[in-house]
Amino acid sequence: MSASEYVVEAVPARPTAYIVEAVRSPVGRRGGGLASVHPVDLGAHVLSSLIERAGIDPSTVEDVIFGCLDQIGPQSADIARTCWLAAGFPEEVPGTTIDRQCGSSQQAVHFAAQGVMSGTQDLVVAGGVQNMSMVPIASATSVGTALGLADNPYTGSHRWAARYGDQPVSQFHGAELIADKWSITRADMEAFALRSHERALRAIDEGRFEREIAPLEGVNIDEGPRRDTSLERMAGLRPIQGNGRITAAVSSQISDGASALLIASQAALDRYGLTPRAKIHHMSVRGADPIMMLTAPIPATEHALQKTGLSIDEIDLIEINEAFAPVVLAWQKEIGADPAKINVNGGAIALGHPLGASGARLMTTLLHELERTGGRYGLQTMCEGGGQANVTIIERV
Questions:
Q1: Burial class (CB in 10 A: 0-12, 13-18, 19+), 384
Q2: Catalytic pick from 45, 173, 353, 368?
Q3: Predicted structure pTM score
Q4: Is 102 a known active-site residue?
Q5: What is the pLDDT of residues 163-214, one digit of tens each?
Q6: 68 part of the active site
Q7: Catalytic residue, candidates 102, 110, 173, 281
Q8: Of 3.40.47.10, 3.40.980.10, 3.30.70.580, 3.50.50.60, which CATH number belongs to 17-136+253-396?
Q9: Which of 10, 129, 198, 257 keeps 20 to 30 A from 31, CA to CA?
């Protein structure tokens, strides 16, 4: 057979995953209006709101993927499945709960979109839930200690020690390391934190969040933003660690909340008469140093831009989780993004960080803000335990 006789088959176009609907609860402050809401009821609330807003038969959903950390007590036993059933929806629809640390519900969106893009699913719910008032952060570790187990997941691992020695593995330590490496002063971080509160309060006052929030228990706005904060108040706080620079003022708030998105294929749009609001343009996840822990958004963003051929200047809006102020400030220095495009409605320092729900919360806010401003591309990234970061680029349609 001659070369001219070979037939080259065209590679079929990859199916597109669309965002049809996105909704979240208000984010409650620790001990605030959502503190006594059972995590299952919190998740069921956003699921009910999502299905109602989308106007679909819940039996057409093929899977429910939720992010949640500290999966013990009221957050245990596959809370994605439990939330769906508590919402009164069909028993034949399954659910699964995942843990990629702070990026868990962003990863849930990735898994849902990948199911659609693989051609194996047409309609998937992705989201997350966390009640940090009811189940304090690191509760799973505390339970392990009470059972006589190691007080952290690395203690006793000879292979981990051989690679990383006895360096402390802590988000606070990592934030301090970032501030040192990128020469970020405490004043820099406090100015950033104040801007986060100011932007969040402006968004609340202008009603920017109203379309995305499903009120619950009489709470209809995010409880975290502080109108009485100031640089002077921040300057009076003690560092979390010794003589460090990180204080509570430049850290994300402990919070309660839930969020959910409906991801659909073209076939589902046609079959059920759904209108897409955005499509998933790119998804990736990368890792970095687990000791510095919080720098992975930098290489992850570089990877995503390289894969897509987009420049950071072509991105209209950016949501990067404000786990700590130096995370965003170091990322901004390395990536060169315009500060005016970053967390335009405030971030986790002001709005709060309900761990398992934050990824889908950021995605929900990003989608609504793209629609409000008429932007085309939105990029979301967040640092995660273990030195990881997801990046999602969505394109408004």
A1: buried
A2: 353
A3: 0.95
A4: yes
A5: 999 999 999 999 999 999 999 999 999 999 999 999 999 999 999 999 999 9
A6: no
A7: 102
A8: 3.40.47.10
A9: 198
